[in-house]
Amino acid sequence: MTSSKRREPDEAPPREPDIMPPALPAMWRLCKLGYQHEPGLLVFAFAMTLLAAIPDALLALWLKILADGLLDEDRAKVILATAGMAASVTATWLLRTVSARVSRRFRDRVTIALEAHVATLQASVATIEHHERRDYLDRLSVLRKQVFVLDHMYMSLFSTCGWILRLGVTIALLVSIHPLLALLVLFALPTVVTSAWRPGIERVTEERHAAYSRLAEHLFRTATTASAGKEVRVTGIGPDLVSRRRTEWEGWYRPIAAVRWGSAAWHAAAWAVFGGAYVGAVVLVAAGLDGSVGDVLLMLAAGARLSAYVGATVGEIGFLRGIWLDGSRRLVWLEEYAAAFTAKADAEVPDRLDDGIRLDHLSFAYPGTDRLVLEDVSLHLPAGRVIAIVGENGAGKSTLVKLLAKMYEPTSGRVLVDGRPLDRIRTDKWRARLAGAFQDFFRFEFQAQHSIGVGDLPRYDDEPAVSTAVRRAGAEDVVDRLPSGLDTQLGPTWPDGAEVSFGQWQKLALARGFMRDRPLLLVLDEPTAALDAETEHELFERYAESARDNADGRITVLVSHRFSTVRMADLIVVLDGSRMVECGSHEDLMARDGQYAALYRIQADAYN
Ligand SMILES: Nc1ncnc2c1ncn2[C@@H]1O[C@H](COP(=O)(O)OP(=O)(O)OP(=O)(O)O)[C@@H](O)[C@H]1O
What we know:
Layout: H1 23-37, H2 39-57, H3 59-72, H4 75-124, H5 134-147, H6 150-177, H7 184-208, H8 210-224, H9 226-235, H10 238-288, H11 293-343, E1 356-365, E2 372-382, E3 386-391, H12 397-404, E4 412-417, E5 420-421, H13 427-432, E6 434-437, H14 448-453, H15 463-473, H16 476-481, H17 502-513, E7 521-525, H18 533-549, E8 555-559, H19 563-566, E9 571-576, E10 579-584, H20 586-592, H21 595-607
Parallel strand pairs: 3-8, 3-9, 6-7, 7-8
Antiparallel strand pairs: 1-2, 1-4, 4-5, 9-10
Helix pairs in contact: 1-2, 1-11, 2-4, 2-6, 3-4, 3-11, 4-6, 4-11, 5-11, 6-11, 7-10, 7-11, 8-10, 10-11, 15-17, 20-21
The structure holds adenosine-5'-triphosphate (ATP).
């Protein structure tokens, strides 16, 4: 998104999706999300984890009472200490077991909820820009990995509270010997600082170099998946892919390993400071304060526990900071990013088109690039007409189609649908009135019925609707040849799956594109490139006929390199080097004797 984008005066300022939301509110948001999904389990698991912390921390006290009882030959103290120890050990075991089970249940449930949440958010982002911008991709790739551990985070937060409670009890025990001993905690602070700092800088380095690991993953997939298999073998690129993958992986790993070593050295130094202070405190109690044997034992046990508790607390905080704070920020970023698209959508989709679609000084550069692939295009696509877009490879034809389908937002200029700015129309509503097929269609390896039916989800299972779409697309021959017709599973890797040729897939994709009954815009972006010119011509003639009959003012936009097909359109738009150079009917453009006429003649001569 660039600052040059033209906005309406009353429009909200554009969002800044590059900025990550602050950590603590993001973490709070994730807590609330967990509570919304599993309130009872969350509260119970939290309470259990806290309860389990107390008897564990009291063990040092029982030890002191036992030593004092033995030295004073006080039976009551010895019995109290022994009973206390037994109760502490049993309660610790029991509460830990219960809390582990409850936590496990909570985690399982909340994981499913969070994964579904992230998947829904990603799918609800209106444009596909986030699938192409490098910085967003890196952010999303880290979030995708983290979503599987986000459930650990709740446990980590509970445990952190448990460790803090243990720490509190232990400090109180030390203070009972001498208040000065509370200062021991201060010597643990450097370890807290290094633990909190380490994961942050490691994460920043990981994100900075995430492009290497993404490329390494891509190279691995290319070397191992079936779709690239043929070309990998014919070109013999396999060993090269393997060695490039290694290089990319090292490009990712080396800086991260260096940062890890550096931060580990600082962390070790911080622990050395605490170790020195602990030894000093034991000497102080034994020699300086003339403490009893019980006091020295309490100091030894509580001090040792203090180090373990501080270690565990900072470890958990580090984990929380490194993954949860970070993961929750990414999640909230994705939530805000997805929400920003619907926030400004306040216009309705017209029920039918009267005027049509107008492009108003439209310019576009792909996300993360500066080169305009469409530049200052102004154009009227009249309602109820068939419009063809022609031009050399890379002239921007598919880009124009993608902008009409709202896959991207224009860099500057506007698209107006019957006078309403397209960016103010809710994307899901606009897409519900959009139909068509794309050059880079997807092969849905479902049953043929469903592979076509997804073109209009509410009628996914509606066989008559699917059969109508098949007829509209002229794909009856493909379905007739499938072993079980529409019930055939597509894709040879599935049980009883049928192998389908590229051209057949293309026709099925076309049928999918014809599922909707009342589209306002039908886009056909070279969906028949794999078919011969004659078949394409016949099909398009049929589409054009039905397009002109419709009562919704539907606009049909077709992209084709075949001029025999293009000439039937009501309006032909010629793109050249990102600009629109000509626009008119076949007859107009031939009479003008410009670029269209020249290209038309070259192709006509080639066919003669
Ligand atoms: N996702 C993308 N990111 C960056 N640049 C892109 C992207 N997709 C296309 N382009 C660039 O935009 C330009 C226009 O591409 P587009 O696909 O719109 O051309 P086209 O006219 O449809 O070409 P063809 O006839 O080959 O399909 C090309 O230079 C292409 O390299």
